[in-house]
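Explain this record to help learners:
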Amino acid sequence: MNKLLITYDLIKHGQDYPNLIENIIKIAPPQMIWHCLESVWIVRCNSTAEEVRNFLEQFIDENDKLLVIELTGTSAWKGFDGECKDWLLLNLPD
C-alpha cells in the first residue's frame, strides 16, 4: 500500500476547495486519510502518485498547483497530538 502526500494551492480567489476535498476523500477509506494541516493530506491507498494526480487534476484550474509525492523514507514531526499524532505513529513507519 502506498503512502501519498497530497498538497495544493488553489490560486484564484473563491476556488472550490470543497469539490477538491470531496474527491481526495474518495481515494481511500477515512481511517487511511490524515488531514491535520490545512492543504496537506496523507493517504494510504493502492494508487500511485501519478494516478492520484491524474484523478485530482480535473478538480482544479490550469493555474492551480497540485503536488502528490509517494512517502518512502523516514519522517519527523512536531506539534501534533491526539488523533493526528496517533495516525502518524501507526501509518508512517514501514
Q: What stands out?
A: The chain has a mean pLDDT of 93. The two ends are 11 Å apart (CA to CA).
